[in-house]
Specification:
- By secondary structure, the chain is mostly beta strands.
- About 10% of the residues lie in helices and about 45% in strands.
- It has five helices and 34 strands.
- The chain has a seven-stranded antiparallel sheet, with no helix packed on it.
- The longest helix is centred in the first third of the chain and has 11 residues.
- The termini are far apart.
Length: about 500
């Protein structure tokens, strides 16, 4: 009865300085009395008369005559089914009350059953499912004039969740700090039912709003206020408070050309849901595969390396999604601009640009993000940079004997023969590029091997090195220890100092 008491007190006081619309002035005593007699059956054991299921969702709706703000208007109301019971989203199942104005004129409430026309602009309301858990409420405006007009529109709701009329409200916030919706939780218990209203940027099925509010339920329910002329009241924008609450959001000064029709819409849901929970691959029917392709010129790190990611995507409430990627140690995440559409297969190409200064493994990182900036890390790919590959123990060196040199190295566990050509006969230092075909898609970069053919050291000098353990340069000069880059002999073995 507290709401009715507040309403009667406001009536006795003449509502102070607040201006009432022409419709409110015309409200009869019978309607007020009907509002006073309304019952708040907030958790229904069975589906109330007049409600019907919205598609395949667990949302049930009624478009009709409702007690909104203790006056009767044509609104859209929704219930959410939880374990066989039907939880309300508004007090007295009063619904979501719409209003609009044209060219800054008098605002009027929107008749969600028959539509409302103001100054040649016809407005109607409808509802449709989005995914498995959300409803999309749509206000459609048609300009039947010969000149463009500007409309402002909005919605108001005296909200509650289930039987808790003091359920706490909080903001839904993106990583950049912007608010994309409001959330009201039935209680602090884990898994408690939620009421979510989504109206922000980047959300499928939503036309971003220009303003919003939440606070005490008697705030901003007149038509002129609903369209964006907000005034603050008790518990204004107080998050997580225990007070009898209301909320609203609006679109301001939207231009409609002559004969044009536009839609303004928002998402609403009630149930055991959490719109802030990231999508988990495999659990929410989200599959993905990723690979690089077109390996011609693959080992040139200076060019783009093509790749693609593909699979099937389905979101529980029809939200679009995006794939973002990051290469090597860069700080920027790149978004593939094509959106993943719920219920469809996808195959998205993108180009990788590797850090040419990096000689360790090259890495592709991936993540999925939805319209509310919920991120889910995905497994990426790794390639070994073979430019830093060295032969085990030392760089090969061979004595000159007048014949071509052939030796074997191991690349990705497989032996590769190097040399065997007349070019590699005379003494000298040789750098050999290993053919791309000798290593696979798990490596990147050009693999080179350096080896030496040398006749400057005699067998006798090698024997001396074995006897006294001294160090010798490649031309046979004894040194206390290597002091310059080059090849040295020590204890019968050849070493290179870089």
């Amino acid at each position: 009865m507290k709401k009715l008491t507040c309403m009667l007190m406001a009536l006795v006081a003449g509502f102070g300085a607040m201006q009432m619309s022409a419709q409110v002035d015309a409200v009869t005593a019978e309607k007020v009395k009907a509002g006073m007699a309304a019952k708040s059956a907030a958790i229904h054991p069975y589906l109330p008369s007049g409600y019907q299921q919205l598609g395949d969702t667990k949302i049930y709706y009624h478009i009709g005559y409702h007690d909104a703000a203790n006056f009767n208007y044509y609104t859209i109301d929704i219930l959410g089914e939880i374990n066989g019971s039907y939880y309300s989203s508004t007090y007295n199942d009063s619904g979501y009350l719409g209003a609009f104005s044209v060219d800054g004129g008098t605002a009027e409430y929107l008749d969600c059953v028959n539509g409302t026309t103001i100054s040649g602009v016809k407005a109607t309301a409808s509802i449709e499912p989005q995914g498995e858990v959300a409803a999309r409420i749509i206000y459609t405006f048609t300009n039947n004039n010969n000149s463009e007009v500007k409309i402002s529109a909005g919605t108001y709701a005296d909200v509650m969740i289930g039987n808790n009329d003091d359920a706490p409200i909080s903001k839904l916030v993106k990583s950049d700090g912007s608010v994309y919706g409001l959330k009201m939780k039935h209680s602090t218990a884990e898994g408690a039912p939620l009421l979510c209203a989504l109206f922000g940027e980047g959300i499928t099925g939503v036309v971003p709003t220009d303003d919003y509010w939440f606070g005490y339920w008697t705030t901003n329910y007149y038509a002129r206020q609903i369209v964006g002329n907000y005034t603050s009241g008790y518990n204004w924008m107080q998050e997580d408070g225990n007070y009898d609450s209301g909320m609203g959001w609006c679109w301001k000064e939207r231009t409609i050309a002559p004969g044009e029709t536009i839609e303004l819409s928002f998402l609403i849901s009630v149930g055991e849901i959490d719109f802030e929970e990231p999508i988990v691959p495999g659990e929410d029917v989200f599959t993905y595969n990723v690979e690089a392709y077109n390996f011609e010129g693959w080992n040139d790190l200076a060019v783009a390396h093509p790749a693609h990611i593909w699979g099937y995507y389905e979101h529980p409430y029809g939200q679009e999604g995006y794939i973002e990627y990051q290469v090597d140690d860069e700080n920027t995440w790149h978004r593939i601009p094509t959106a993943l559409v719920s219920g469809e297969n996808y195959d998205l190409p993108f180009d990788m640009f590797f850090n040419q200064e990096r000689t360790t493994d090259h890495v592709l990182n991936l993540r999925f993000t939805d319209g509310m900036d919920n991120y889910t890390e995905l497994n990426g790919l790794t390639w070994t940079d073979v430019r830093s590959y060295t032969v085990e123990n030392a760089i090969p060196s061979f004595p000159f004997d007048g014949t071509p040199k052939t030796f074997e190295v191991i690349v990705n566990g497989e032996p590769v023969l190097i040399g065997g050509d007349a070019e590699y006969v005379n003494p000298g230092v040789y750098t050999v590029v290993v053919a791309e075909g000798d290593y696979d898609e798990n490596t990147i970069g050009v693999l080179t091997i350096t080896f030496v053919i040398d006749d400057a050291v005699s067998v006798e000098e090698i024997a001396v090195a074995n006897e006294n353990g001294a160090w010798y340069t490649i031309d046979g000069k004894a040194v206390a220890a290597p002091s310059m880059p080059g090849f040295y002999i020590h204890n019968g073995k050849k070493y290179i100092v870089k």
